[in-house]
Amino acid sequence: MTDLQTRDFERELQFQASRSGGAGGQNVNKVATKIELRFDVQHSELLTEEEKAMVQEKLANRINNEGYLQLTCQTERTQLRNKETCINRFYELLRQALTKQKKRKATKPSRASVRRRLEGKKRQAEKKSNRGFRGDY
Question: What average pLDDT score do residues 67-79 get?
Answer without folding.
Answer: 87
